[in-house]
Amino acid sequence: MTTTGAHQDAAGTVARGWWWWGRRRSAVLDVGLAVLSALECAAEGVGFAGEASLPEAVGVLFGLVAGAALVVRRRWPVFVVLVSIAITPAEMGYLMSLVGLYTLAAAEVPRRIVAALAGMSLVAVLIVTFVRVRQDVAAADFQPGPWYVPLVAVFLSLGLTAPPVLFGLYIGARRRLMESLRERADSLEQELSLLADRAEQQAQMARTEERTRIAREMHDVVAHRVSLMVVHAAALQAVALKDPQKAVRNAALVGDMGRQALAELRQMLGVLRSDEPVGRSVEARSAAQAESAAAEPLAAVGRAAAAAARAAGDGAGPGIGDVEELVEQSRAVGTVVDLRVTGEVRSYASEVEQTAYRVVQEALTNVHKHAPGAEVVVRLAHRGGEVAMQVENGPSGVGAPDAGLPSGGNGLVGMRERVTALGGVFVSGPTDAGGFRVSAVLPVGTAAA
C-alpha cells in the first residue's frame, strides 16, 4: 500500500489523498475515535489485568494497542470487527465494537460477511453478558426466576449489536442511492450536452438550407426578367436610330418585363412579411427545440420563400400554363424558339407546376446569356405519372451580339435542387451539334402527395 495511492473507503467511494482518507476531517475523526477507544480499552485493561493476575502495565498496553486499531476502520472494517470480537471476553472495546459494526455494515462488503461477523459479535457479547449478569446476581444474593439472566443477556447483546448494524445498513444504502442519483444526473447532463450540440448542428444545417432556398427563389424570380431586359436594352440601343418604331416596341417590352419582375419580387417580399409568427409558447417547446430556436427566424424566411413558391398553384405565380408566354417573351427579343407539347395537358400540384416553369425559365435565361442567336426547342410531355420538359439549343448564331450578361454559376445547381427535391431526375450537358440540353422529369404523384 502506497501513501499517495487511491483507496476505497467505507462508503464505497474512491478516495485520493494521504493514506486512505479522502478528506482531512475524515482523518481527524478516525484518529480522534481511535484515541478515545485506546483510552477506554486502557482503562478497562486495568480490571482485566487484575482478574488475569497480570501487571497493570501489561493490561494498559494491551488496551492501548487494541483500541488504536479503530484508526483503520475505513480501510479494513473486517479487521476492526474481528479485533473487537477478540477482546470481548476481556470486557473491553465497547466503542470499538459499536463503531466497527457500523462501519462494516455501511461499507461495500458482501452482505454474507456482514451477517457472519455481526452474528459472531452478537454471540460473543451474549456469552460475556450472560456470564457477567449471572455473577452479579449471585454476588447480590438475589434469586430471580430462571428466565431473568437469559432475558437480560439477550436484551443487552441485542442493544449493543443490532443498532449499529441497522444504522450502518441504512447509511450504506443511502450512500449508494445518492451515488446512483449522482451518476444518473451526470449521465443526463452529458446526454443534454450531446442533444444541445446536435440541435446546434441541425440549426446550422437549417440556416444553410434556408439561405440556399431563399437565394434560389430570388434568383428564379429576378434573373430571367432582368436578363430579358438587358437583351432588349441592347437591341434598343442597336436600332434606336435606324428603326424608331422598333425601338419604341422594345422600350415598351423592357417596361413590361421590369414591371413583371417588380411584381414577382413584391409578391415574394409580401409573403415574407406576412408569414406566420415565429414565436412559440415556452411550454410547447422541447429541450431540443429550445436549443434550435436560434434558427427559427431564418427558418421562417425560408418557409415564406417556399410559401411564395406554393402560391403559384393558387394563381399567384407562374405554372406550366405560362410556359407559352415565357416562350413569346424570348421570341420578342429575336430568339427563335419552337414549343412542342405532347400528351394530354392537365393541371398538377403547385410544386410541380412551378418547378416545371422554373426549369424552362432558367434554361431560356442561360440561352440568352451563353448562346445568343441560337435556335431553341422547348418540349413538354404530359405522361401518366410524370411530366417531362426539355430545353435544347443549337450553337450560337454567327454575328449575334453578346449582351454581356453575368453568370453566377448557380442556375443549373438551382434547377437540379428543385427537381431532386420533388423526387425527379435532372440531366444537363452539351449536345453533339455544339449546343446544350437541359432535361427534367417530375413525378406527379409524389409531388401531389
TrEMBL record:
Residues annotated as transmembrane: 78-101, 113-131, 151-173
Domain Signal transduction histidine kinase subgroup 3 dimerisation and phosphoacceptor span(s) in chain numbering: 210-275
Catalytic function, reaction form: ATP + protein L-histidine = ADP + protein N-phospho-L-histidine
Coiled coil, from the record: 171-209
Histidine kinase/HSP90-like ATPase domain boundaries: 353-444
Class of this enzyme: transferase
Record protein name field: histidine kinase
Species assigned in the record: Streptomyces coeruleoprunus
